[in-house]
Amino acid sequence: MDGQVDVTTKQFPRHKLFNRELALLMYGFGDVMTPSSESVDVLEDILIDYINNICLQAAKVAGRRGRVAVEDFKFILRKDPKKLARVEELIAMNKEIETARTLF
After folding, report:
1. CB burial class (10 A; 0-12, 13-18, 19+) of residue 22?
2. What are the extents of the domains in the chain?
3. What's a Pfam family this protein contains (predicted)?
4. Which partner from 1, 4, 25, 39 sits 20 to 30 angstroms from 96, CA to CA?
5. Which string of DSSP letters, residue by residue, matches the chain?
């Protein structure tokens, strides 16, 4: 493939990026204080697969632009009102933080 990497088949190394946070979330949702590491690893695999899939879908929507925008993610999440509302809430909070920084 003339030097291009096919991101759909590339395996990314596991760095246990979310283990601590996922263990805390599991505890918050009723699991034991220190959940099984295998359970956390499986949940992390599911989360990373989900994030990768959403990013790939957003890249396909971006198409020839070559750049993924926030609007692409909003388009992908348009059929899931809870996730879309959370994205819009985070965007609004980010704008508030930015305006507060400019004031100080």
Report:
1. buried
2. 14-66, 69-104
3. TFIID-18kDa
4. 25
5. -TT---TTTPPPPP--SSHHHHHHHHHHTT--SS--HHHHHHHHHHHHHHHHHHHHHHHHHHGGG-S--HHHHHHHTTT-HHHHHHHHHHHHHHHHHHHHHHH-
Look up residue 43 and give its two tokens: 């949940």
> Rounded distance, CA 9 to CA 6, Å?
6
Read off the pLDDT of residues 50-95 as tens digits, 9 standing for 90 and up. Answer: 999 999 999 999 988 889 999 999 999 999 999 999 999 999 999 9
Amino acid type, 68: V
Contact yes or no for 18/47 (Cβ under 8 A): yes
